[in-house]
Amino acid sequence: MRLAKYLAHAGVASRRAAEDLIRAGRVTVDGEVVSDLGRQVSDGAEVRVDGAVVTGAEEPVVWLVNKPEGVVSTARDTHGRPTVVSLVPAGGARLYPVGRLDAGTTGLILVTNDGELAHRLTHPSFEVPRTYVARVGGGPVSDDALRSLRSGVDLDDGRTSPARVRRLGPDELELVLHEGRKRQVRRMCEAVGHRVVALRRVAFGPLSLGRLRVGAARRLAPAEVEALRRENGER
Q1: Whole-angstrom Cα distance, residue 62 to residue 88?
Q2: How far apart are CA 230 and CA 235, in angstroms?
Q3: Which parts of the chain have pLDDT scores under 70?
Q4: What is the C-alpha separation between 112 and 93, in angstroms, rounded?
Q5: Is 58 exposed, middle or buried (0-12, 13-18, 19+ CB in 10 A)?
Q6: 211-234 pLDDT, tens per residue?
Q7: Residue 5 burial (CB < 10 Å; 0-12/13-18/19+)?
């Protein structure tokens, strides 16, 4: 098994974050600092991160959190702000969020110790849909604005992929994206003349918030985790 995948399965970090740890020289295998992302790990090898031994893989868990405004989408925060991980009754598991919601965005975010699943749910190549409800300023949303959002708009980091967009009210939109760029919904709406006033993610792949209250978390049932795996073709 490749080292980054080993770290992800052990719950150290997502596979992408594990690769960053390796590049930074923070990982050793049998006492040797490893920087090669292709390094294979054999059974019985001693793997350490920042000097701490990495034990075997924990039981994979996935939690669904209804993130409140002002909570940050990280495992820890150096400024002492509340994090999505702090909302989960983790029982000691090493958890981290799947992707990000900015502090001002509320709604559905997943927290897990399964780095491989996290990678597959967030990597653009798997195109897992995310559904958002946005309340916007700038007056009623025109048909031209809807057409632009549906066909893709030009942002400073490139043109967006086509999105499914429908009008829920004069100043409220539902948007379904298959990308996860930073502040993407806000920037898309601004590009067509409508600043986002409030933004909530209501679904991620086959999962929806349902009646989960703001600030609460629930552990996904095995059937729900399996549905997530099927969403990106994992078996």
Answers
A1: 10
A2: 7
A3: 56-58, 90-93, 232-235
A4: 9
A5: middle
A6: 999 999 999 999 999 998 887 655
A7: middle
Catalytic positions are 102
Query: Look-up: residue for tokens 């019985």?
Result: 44
Distances (CA, A) of 152 to 147, 177, 202, 223: 9, 11, 21, 34
Collapsing DSSP to helix, strand or coil, 49 comes out as: strand
Ordered domains of the chain (ranges, CATH):
3-53 (3.10.290.10), 62-124+207-231 (3.30.70.580), 129-204 (3.30.70.1560)
- Amino acid at position 166, single letter: R
What is the rounded average pLDDT for all residues in the chain?
90
HSE (side-chain half, CA atoms, 13 Å) at 223: 0
Q: How many CB atoms lie within 10 A of CB 144?
A: 10
Joined tokens for residue 130: 């995310």
Report CA 113 to chain centroid distance, whole Å: 12
Q: What is the pTM of this model?
A: 0.77
Output phi, psi for 107, to 5 deg.
110, -155
Three-state SS at 97: strand
